[in-house]
Amino acid sequence: MRAVLMAGGSGTRLRPLTCELPKPMVPILNQPIAEHIINLLRRHQITEIIATLHYLPDVMRDYFQDGSDYGVQITYAVEEDQPLGTAGCVKNIAELLDETFLVISGDSITDFDLSAAIRFHKQKQSKATLILTRVPNPIEFGVVITDENHRISRFLEKPSTSEIFSDTVNTGTYILEPEVLDYLPSNVESDFSAYLFPLLLEKDEPMYGYIADGYWCDVGHLDAYRDAQYDALQRKVKLEFTSEQQSPGIWVGQNTYIDSTAKIQAPVIIGRNCRIGSRVQIEAGTVIGDNVTIGADADLKRPIIWNGASIGEEAHLRACVIARGTRVGRRAHVLEGAVVGSLSTIGEEAQVSPNVRVWPSKEVESGATLNINLIWGQTAHRNLFGQRGVQGLANIDITPEFAVKLGAAYGSTLKQGSSVTVSRDQRSISRMVSRSLIAGLMSVGINVQNLEATAIPVARTVVPTLSVTGGIHVRVHPDRADYILIEIFDPKGINISKSQEKKIEGAYFKEDFRRAQIHEIGNVTYLNQGIEIYSTAFEKHLNVPAIRNSGAKVVIDYVYAVSGAVLPLLLAKFGCDAVVLNASLNQSALAVPEREALLNQLGHVVEALKANFGVQVSAHGEQMILVDESGLPIRGEMLTALMIQIILTANPRGTVVVPVHASSAVEQIARRHDGRVIRTKANPTALMEACHTNPNVVLGGSGEMGFIFPQLHPGFDAMFCIAKLMEMLSLQERSLGAIRSELPRVYHKNYPVRCPWTVKGALMRHLVETNPAENLELVDGVKICNYQNDSWVLILPDASEPLVTIYANSNNKDWVDETLREYRTRVQEFVELDKGMDFLN
């Protein structure tokens, strides 16, 4: 059997280690990852190997040559012009694959029993067999579900946190029949997981998943790289060592000298031709390459040191990576998680702080303390974007230097000379961050139209009107007064897609920024007609005479936010009798108890003035809580149902879009009006996209997120919602209290349960496997339905916290209470059981 070794990866998340090496050539235990894979193939009698190369191909060809020194025969196929993807590069060599063949990734460490997997493939008469494994946190991998016969029934490539429905993942190792390559186009970039396997599933070709025992680690980022080294030293994975074991757990290469006063704690590996000085302390977990010199009294606690490095006397290395040929000076400190690129110099008594990265051939001067990456920027985070944009602690995570770098990363993904809008709330911290973002955008040749302080619905409306490339809005987080939230819009005003987020993250992590020449630096203009543009669109989509003639009295609490500077101007144009509360701008965000006190006050004012209704506007003009004529608040699921009732009454047979966890009152109301309900993932971007892409949508959103009127703009808009309510109540001649009394009685409760990140995937898989497939909905989380009585329970993983939320919904209150108790207990027991298994392991 032949094997295709995919070795073209550039390993951008492993930089600076991969600046001069392709990812498969990065060493584990002093041997390239690809060498460990070749050894594995040879152990299973697979000796004909075709290596597909793209990034720095000569490095691998020069190292392995024809493979004879490693007991195999290696042929190379180089993608010269552009990468063809995982499947495209295999299609490119289809003429060499005339019988069953194996495809294996060159950038993972594993000791899977490939022979057993091949036997499984032949026994099942499979056309494509994916070798799978179970991992604690599957968010970075392709999730796969198989049926009881191991036939693949579903998979999802790199799910978001809430999409996890199994912890069984694709390892990038496949056993294929040559005819499956006929489904692939020639000389076109294509991917196994994104293109070929879904197509085979659609064509009902026999495709199976073999769940392998053993060790597997995708060396995709620096933390995984260090973990793979430590696991290999502890013999958690079966790898071949080039050094001899001189004593239990201590491997030492030929011609290495170790001073008799040095203290070494197993397990440790030391390469060939090394010199270990007197009184050196080497702690368990340390990996030392060939031709390395360690000076006297150096203290090494689990560093990974590549070939040819020189470590000075009394140097301190702590769980860091020192690349090829680097010199670490006397008494220098390189701390946890730091990575120093090849041929760099760390001066005497210098310190490289935790998680800092130094690019190749750089110099840190003696005595310097390096707290940021040597090029620019601070500690690299694995993901920039969360559930609804970039967020973090104000002036701690989201700092001016961070914002400059983010602006440059975003701008580098756009065409030079493009224009974007930048807007913010009224707070000083948001002004600081927005100005830093503007500086970053300008530096890469992007022009900025600065809207300054304005409500986010205004910002979303302006973006498509001005035909700019996108927009950025900065504000204090609606739910956390100490957090900053940065949202980036596409040209339609919708939050950017996941693929665009990944491009920005790629530019940010690689620090791959375009640098504009002086005459190409972006310009900043100040746009003063933002409210005018919004007002025009606002008025266009309202029945203004109905509002003007309604005689309604409304009390609006702006909670000291910037929407108080926008909506009163609009309502005044319609001659509305609107009583304004707390419309002045406040630099500090109100805490939840303060907002609740103002809501209580609003209820009293509405009742005293005999107003038609009251509204508390929050989240920078996106969200609201209603107060009916008797002063009672309407929020959450009640508000969702009420808004849908009002809008569908005016638009029968319309479509509404709600998140997956909204109550079934939505469907009951829609049936009254021959309406259609679309449920989406429980995140703002999914709601916006669904409202924009589906026909005849008259309303989207929910009481907790806000409401979308897609004919106006694609985002949430409490300000337009208030005006629309005034119009609808006038035309329908109803009060909020009367409409509320006619809503369906549905019991809908939720309960959050703590669940570690490493358990979420296994929990979701357990729920999928223990419930009939016909009762499951996997839009987001795992929803178990009883279609006869509109009852369901949803277990939804939280995207940003180590917990899952259980939602129960029914017309029967007792069923809801009992179901919540049952699933709360089931989740807690599963979490405890998983912890117990970890302890035993």
UniProtKB/TrEMBL annotation:
Q: Which GO terms describe its molecular function?
A: mannose-1-phosphate guanylyltransferase (GTP) activity; phosphoglucosamine mutase activity; structural constituent of carboxysome shell
GO terms of biological process kind: carbohydrate metabolic process
| The keyword Ion transport belongs to this UniProt entry's keyword annotation | no
Q: Where is this chain's protein located in or outside the cell?
A: Cytoplasm, Cytosol
Q: Which residues form the Nucleotidyl transferase domain?
A: 3-234
Q: Which CDD domains match?
A: MPG1_transferase, NTP_transferase
**Subcellular location, principal:** cytoplasm
Q: Record's superkingdom?
A: Bacteria
Alpha-D-phosphohexomutase alpha/beta/alpha domain location is 383-514, 534-631, 636-746
Q: Can you name this protein?
A: Mannose-1-phosphate guanylyltransferase, Phosphoglucosamine mutase
Q: Which of UniProt's keywords are assigned here?
A: Cytoplasm, Initiation factor, Isomerase, Nucleotidyltransferase, Phosphoprotein, Protein biosynthesis, Repeat, Transferase
Provide the taxonomic classification.
Answer: Bacteria, Bacillati, Cyanobacteriota, Cyanophyceae, Gomontiellales
Q: Output a single Gene Ontology CC term carried by this record.
A: carboxysome
Where's the EIF2B subunit epsilon/gamma LbH domain?
250-352
User: Into which family does the record put it?
Assistant: Belongs to the phosphohexose mutase family.
Quote the EC number: 2.7.7.13, 5.4.2.10
